[in-house]
Structures are given as C-alpha cells and as structure tokens.
Amino acid sequence: MKLKITIILFLATYISSAQTQFDFTVQQAIAYAVEHNITLSKTKIDQDIIAAQIAEVKGRALPQISATGGFSDNFSLAEQQLPAEVFGGEPGTTIGVAFGNRYSFSGGARVEQQLLNFQLFSSIRAAKALEEIQNLTVLQSTQDLIINVIQVYIQIQVTTKQVELLEENFERTNNLIELSDAKYKEGIIKKLDVNQLKVNRSNLRTQIEDAGYQLGEQKRLLKLYLYIPMDDVINLTERLEDNEAFPLQDSLTITSNIQYQQLNKQVALSVIDQKVERANYLPKLSAFFNYNYLGNTNEFTFEQPSYVDQWNGTWGLSASMNIFDGFSRRKRVVQKQLETKKLEEDQKLLKINIEKDYEDAVQQMLLSQSQIASQKENMELAQENYDGIQTSYNEGVADLTELLDSEFALRQAQSNYLNALLQSKVSELRILRTSGQLSQLIASN
C-alpha cells in the first residue's frame, strides 16, 4: 500500500514538473500567437515563395549569359570519294579522302539581352501585383489570428464567470436543502418541496459540468492558436470587461478593409493579365553577342604546328513577331476581359456586404452596451429580491414556489448580463475588423 502511494506521489510530482505555466495578458497572448502560430507561419512561407518567383521573373530581363565547351576524338574520319586523276590516279576512278583532324577542342560564350519584350515587362508587373496580394493575405491571416485569440480570451473569462455564478447558486441551493430537510422533519413543508430543491441542485451540477467542459475546450482552442502543448497551463491575467472600450473610428472607410483591398488588387492583376496576352501581338527585340574558340590537331598536343586554333565572334539584333495563330490569342484576351468583369461585380457585392456587416456590428455594440447597464441593474435587483424571499422563506412567510421563481429570475439575469458583456466585446472586434482599423494597426506595428 505504501509502495502504491509512493508511486502515485512520484507520478504526480513528475507530471506537475513537466508542465509549463503561461501567464498572459491579452497583448502577450497576441504577441505569442503571432510568433508561434503554425498557420500564420505557413502563410509567411508562401510570401517568401512569391518573392522568389518575382525575382525569377525579373531575372529574365537581365542579360542571359551561357557558355559551352567540348572535346571530340574523330578516331575514324569519314572519307569522301574524289576523282583519282586529281591526285595523279587513273582517270575515271575515284579515291577516298578523309577531311578534318582527329582531335578538336571547342568553347564559346553567348550573351543575350532583351531590348523590347512587352510580354516580359507586363509579366514583371503581374508578379509585383501578386506579391501585394500575398502581403495582404499575410495581413489578413494575422488579423484573423488576433481576432480569434481575443475572442477566445474573452469567452474563457465569461465562461469562468459563469462557472463561478453557477457554483454560488449551487451552494445556495445546497444550503436551502439542508434548511428544507429540517423543516420537513418538523412537518412545516412537504417532501415534494425538498425533492424539487434536489432536482434543481442536480440540474445546477449538470450545468456546472457542461460549463467546465466548455471552459476546458476554450482553453485548448487558445493553446492551439498559441501553439502551446495541451499539457501546459494557461492563466489569463487580464480582465477585459474591466478595460475601457477601444477607441473606434466614427465611420467606415471601405478602402481600409482587407478583403476589399485584396479584391481590388485581384482586379488590377486581371487587367495586367489582359496586357500580357495582348503583348503577344507586339514585336520582340533582343541583342546578342557570340564569341567562340576552335582548336584542331591530329596528335594529342597543344603545340604548333600540329595544333591549330582560331577565334571567331558575332553580334547583332534579333527580332520576332507573331503574325497569325488562328485567333487563339484574341480569344484568350476575351476570357481575361470577362474574368475582370466578374471580379468587378464581386467587388460591388463585397462593398455592400462590408457596409452591412459594419452597420450590424455598430448596432449590436450599441444594443449590448445598453443591455450591459440594464442587465447589471436587473441582476442586482434579482439578487436583492432573491435574498429577501429567501429570508422570508427561512422565516416561514414565503413558500418554496416564490423562492424557486426568484432563483430562476436571478440565474436568468446573470446569464443575460454575461451574454451582453460577451456580445459587446465581439461586436467591438467586428467593427475593428470590418472598418479596417485593426489591419491598419497591425501594418503600422
């Protein structure tokens, strides 16, 4: 028995020592998430990939330099049949003559520079627009992560408060059961009244368990956003409901919204894609420079007179232009134009949706702020009413039904207050996101 207890204590100590405890204010939680979140890290990697692709496209506008080299051993030279009489032979016959040298060495360099290539220039602009879109994607991912962290942070605190209130209600109900048992034994109340209180206590216990599970689920979600091991402990050290509301801008600036900016860049990219296709109709001009070396010998030596070498070079301009391709390029341009038109329609739809979301968030925040004040007062009145009826019940003046009704009203007021508090903070986040104010704060920092 002693051995089992020792093992259990050892395991408990080991598990406790293996856990790491994190204490976070909301700003600390945001900073930690931005630094460690895997999804955001992958988005930043995509950003680096786009930057490398842009560098690749830009590199095509720089001089293209290539070099060649080679060696060949013509151990069996091909012969050509020539009239034998040229070499003093019998007329009318031929003789085989081998041309060339057995060993040859070659080398060369070529430099080519694009002088006029509208398709390449448009492709560079398209790559730049793609980079701007990816930068906005990283900004949006960062914004979404921050909003998720703050929202879960708030939910954890609200759920924690909910658990505390439920436990207080459970304790009150437990005390009432003890008092009611005594009254039942004295014959003052019925057994049914005691049973009703026990049913309420059981229901409260279930609500506490459900809220406890919800709280654990929310903490695990926060750990996921922060990329913290599930075995570690997180403590939230800041009470957001005690903080003043963040100063929000008075109106919506549609061009500051990240989604609108992204779609705007996609429209611009689609227009550039049209130019890339149209550039296929335009001429291309490039300059080139070649310089080559050739050495020949019948013996494997680099000394004269057996070894003979020479240098040759050329430079010039090269132009090309597509004349006719069966109208395929024209059809591709039409496709790009239709894609641009579709994006412009999406832009109009997005604009009105953003305006709706912003107005919904503003109205929800105003409503929640009004409800916070009224529900807080209502909760205090419900508490006062419950305390008064409980005193009357203890004195035998009030019956159990009145007490249970006042307890239900108290729990409802508490729930309404917590919900109004949560909705106020959530609507504040919606305004920050929809108006673009949050993205501006992120970009400036």
Overall morphology: elongated
User: CATH superfamily membership, which one?
Assistant: Outer membrane efflux proteins (OEP)
Number of helices: 9
Query: Which strand-content bin applies to the residues?
Result: 15-25%
The total number of structural domains is 1
CATH topology term: Outer membrane efflux proteins (OEP)
The termini sit apart by: 60 Å
H and E string: HEHHEEEEHHEHEEHHH
Structural class: alpha+beta
Main sheet: strands, sense, barrel: 4 strands, antiparallel
Cross-sheet strand order for the largest sheet = 2-5-7-8
Helical content band: 55-70%
Question: Regarding quaternary structure, how should these chains be classified?
Answer: single chain
- For the CA atoms, what is the radius of gyration? 41 Å
Write the layout of secondary structure elements.
Layout: H1 2-18, E1 21-24, H2 26-36, H3 38-59, E2 64-73, E3 79-83, E4 94-98, E5 103-116, H4 118-186, H5 191-226, E6 233-236, H6 258-278, E7 284-297, E8 308-320, H7 328-394, H8 400-435, H9 437-444
Parallel strand pairs: 1-6
Antiparallel strand pairs: 2-5, 3-4, 5-7, 7-8
Question: What does this 3D model show about the protein?
Answer:
This protein has 445 residues and is of the alpha+beta class. The protein has one domain: Outer membrane efflux proteins (OEP) (Up-down Bundle). It is 64% helix and 16% strand. It has 9 helices and 8 strands. The strands form 3 sheets. It has a 4-stranded antiparallel β-sheet with strand order 2-5-7-8, with no helix packed on it. It has a two-stranded parallel ribbon with strand order 1-6. The N terminus is likely disordered.
